[in-house]
Amino acid sequence: MTTKMATMTEFDVPENLPTHVAIIMDGNGRWAKARGGERLEGHKAGAKTVREIVTFAREIGIRYLTLYAFSSENWGRPEQEVSGLMDLLSEYLKDEKQTLLDNDIELSTIGDTSKLPLMVRGLLNATKLATKGLDGMRLTLALSYGSRDELLRAVRGIATDVKKGKLDVKDIDEDAIGKRLYTHDMPDPDLMLRTSGEQRISNFLLWQLAYAELSFVDMAWPEFSKEAFVNALRDYASRQRRFGLTGAQVDEDDG
């Protein structure tokens, strides 16, 4: 399928866009509490931001967008909040399926989705199947995801293969680990954004973020907008990514 061309926007989007953007969508609950509401109201407002940012990212030409939607640690939150989040996820999958199809967006997931409620898994699998192969953008939802657990699974997989004689110890390298991660079929993030002003990565893509540029935005996720996204992309475009080299070496390679 042919990728649709990015359409014109009212924003001055930089040419040097990251291929893969990962976002920790933080601050929903605190945003609602600050306004005298319940935490779930913040999550509902955050869902609207998801809709806006996903379609905008596709429009401007981002190829991969990964959203930290529900961590493995989030299962420990109050039962009512967890139930509400699962309901919101179900609503999103029902309401946005056609939008994904219309915009050539493939949906994928990372994380232990077997822990999700049966109805949610059904909607999730149906949407993933319906959008499989669409090549405008890949939207990945990190659901019941924890990076330490992901790495533990990879290590166990390697140990099992060594025990069965399928893998020699001397052949264990970065590639052997990488291809056993949930993200084995996508590039590592170039840019990781976190909203709410918190400055940590919270067990998110620990291996994959090794050389990502980090951006911490001092606004809650429900407040995050197209303009804020473009500002972060401009900041990214102004940085020099050296990957362990010197600035002079990078300049020489670019020349």
Structure description:
The chain has 255 residues and is α/β, with parallel strands linked by helices. The protein has a single domain, classed as Undecaprenyl pyrophosphate synthetase (3-Layer(aba) Sandwich). The chain is built from 8 helices and 6 strands. The radius of gyration is 19 Å and the shape is globular.
In percent terms, what proportion of residues is strand? 5-15%
Tally of discrete structural domains: 1
Give the CA-based shape. Answer: globular
What would the average pLDDT be, to the nearest integer?
Answer: 92
Q: Mind summarizing the main beta sheet? A: 6 strands, parallel
Tell me the Rg in angstroms.
Answer: 19 Å
Helix % is: 40-55%
Question: Distance between termini?
Answer: 35 Å
Identify the CATH homologous superfamily.
Decaprenyl diphosphate synthase-like
- pLDDT < 50 runs, ≥5 residues: 1-8
Under CATH at level 1, the class stands as: Alpha Beta
Number of helical stretches of at least 4 residues: 8
CATH-defined topology: Undecaprenyl pyrophosphate synthetase
Would you report the number of β strands?
6
Which structural category fits the helices and strands? alpha/beta
Sheet with most strands: strand arrangement = 3-4-2-1-5-6
Per CATH, which architecture? Answer: 3-Layer(aba) Sandwich
Secondary-structure element series: EHHEHEHEHHEEHH
